[in-house]
Design a protein that fits this description.
The complex is a heterodimer of chains A (about 475) and B (about 220). Chain A has about 475 residues and is of the alpha/beta class. Chain A has 16 helices and 19 strands. The relative contact order of chain A is 0.13. Chain B has about 220 residues and is an alpha/beta fold. Chain B has a single domain, classed as Aconitase, domain 4, CATH 3.20.19.10. In chain B, strand 6 and strand 7 form a beta hairpin. The chains are: A alpha/beta (about 475), B alpha/beta (about 220). The interface between A and B is large, with 86 and 64 residues.
Amino acid sequence: MAGKTLYDKLWDDHLVKQRDDGSALIYIDRQLLHEVTSPQAFEGLRLAGRKPWRIDANIATPDHNVPTTDRDRGVEGIVDPVSRIQVETLDKNCDEFGILEFKIKDQRQGIVHVIGPEQGATLPGMSIVCGDSHTSTHGAFGCLAHGIGTSEVEHVLATQCLVQQKMKNMLVKVNGKLDPGVTGKDVVLAIIGKIGTAGGTGYAIEFGGEAIQGLSMEGRMTICNMSIEAGARVGMVAVDDTTIDYVRNRPFGPKGDQWDAAVNYWRTLHSDSDATFDKVVELDGSEIQPQVSWGTSPEMVVGIDGRVPDPEQEADPIKREGIVRALKYMGLQPNMAITDIKLDRVFIGSCTNSRIEDLREAAAVVKGRKVSPILKQAMVVPGSGLVKAQAEQEGLDKIFIEAGLEWRDPGCSMCLAMNADKLGQGEHCASTSNRNFEGRQGFGGRTHLVSPAMAAAAAVTGHFVDVRELTN
Amino acid sequence: MRALKQHQGVVAPMDRSNVDTDMIIPKQFLKSIKRTGFGPNLFDELRYMDEGKPDQDCSTRPINPDFVLNQDRYKNASVLLARRNFGCGSSREHAPWALEDFGFRVIVAPSFADIFYNNCFKNGLLPIVLPEDVVGQLFREVEQSEGYQLAVDLEARTVTTPSGETFTFEVDDFRRHCLLNGLDDIGVTLEDAEVIRSYEESRRRTAPWLFGAGS
């Protein structure tokens, strides 16, 4: 019998019931809740007279709507009344149902996908869901983690299970070593550029190979985070010493004898050497350049030495039409050098890139430099209150502030601009977030996806530049 | 949930690939704590010339006359014809809520993003995958014939054109069963409450660290 993939193992471990019609009940160990996709789920429970199945499996925090300034005022500091109601509704629902919530003034508050791992509420081998597509982040720990809709949030609250069909297995293998200055973000953008935004649809992707194994947990989280931008709900990395070292001594993690038992189990969370995948994609990590997206889909990405594509060179008519549309929206000309794109703002943050390592990488680039006067704004939004405190302990805040970047409070912020942080019409932004869709960061805003180091390099030069030119 | 067995309706063509959920319903409308009322803001940035705000009266806003749903011939459409990777991006169920609230019951495309596809079934909305060449043919037919309708039969898994040409589609049995009968799938799952409890007890023994609150 052929060996199992990591996904096969996680699936089998969580299988409650295989139904005759091909669907299956999968047990959910952890649900993360936030204010945007949960209110209708709680309301559904109330209307049906149902109670949460297992309260201790849930952890909540507000992140999408929270302001990144003036946080001493708590909920009162949310100027937009509609946003405030949503955060207050989360508070009320968690209080009513007895669910643990890191409220807006709690230092543990932050972006759901940052606080889960930080608290050890994300552990290897877990099944994790959240009403947010970037839940794939947690797969970096050898978890089965995926984003779900609000009806499924309610379903998991009520039953602790999810109805699923098993996905196919894909291995994305990144061989070789990455160049210094090339990060997890560049790797995942290069993968999406290669397989496309629908390349992973229907698959659970396992990321492997020497380049992935060489990454920190932060780098692996960045890669798994953007699995969904490749169309895959689930992204995973096998458990190794890096994983176990990260999880050690986290507040929600196992202690004493349970720690040893857990580690023994976690060591089994990798694909067997004779496992077979439905699809295998290989990349040479040593050839990956720092990446910059030029268009309105994450697959519209090139290396920093590249140029904006010419639609005339695209054979597929649907893709050609997509390029024409994207160039018009982005206000770019075919064949222009990526380094010639003029920027208005820089955003360093989001569930993709707001962890301590991301901030360290950005700070290393801006240290002793100044934000370009061409820019209207450059801001750093840490992923959680604890990331913020850690960064301040290391003096990163001072480096950013001295360079002229704004040092904000934690939340999703300008990644999706549900709070006050947004782009103006026509503005170009070097952003460490995950989506460059039309209007994503603000009505008419133009997003370019990059790594934290590349965003920092753009901040001090006012345009895109190969960060290796500044740091070597 | 509203059941869907058969449906016939006017087809509106959405002729672009990778339509994302930010495009279907922009983020400022996700601040609602309700499930209803998203229809007027469906495709907001494409449909109107100004920037939409929550709780705004949309009837007085400047509309984009070029946008497909603003054209008289498509105003009563209930079948959306789309290109590949429709519904990519975020998991927001507000996207199918907005489509359903506008009046759509069926979406036909060569491919859908996984989470969106799944969310549709929870809201009485049927996403149908047909081969790219068939979808291309349907786009041409819709263009040529005002009032073009498609007839969908979920029981038989068929889509039929006005000329009587019929295409079959695949849909998994559980989702089909729930949509045909308008079932609340939480109720269906809770029929297995004992099986869930017994799984949970065994998991509590093998992985006790997954239970109980943190310190």
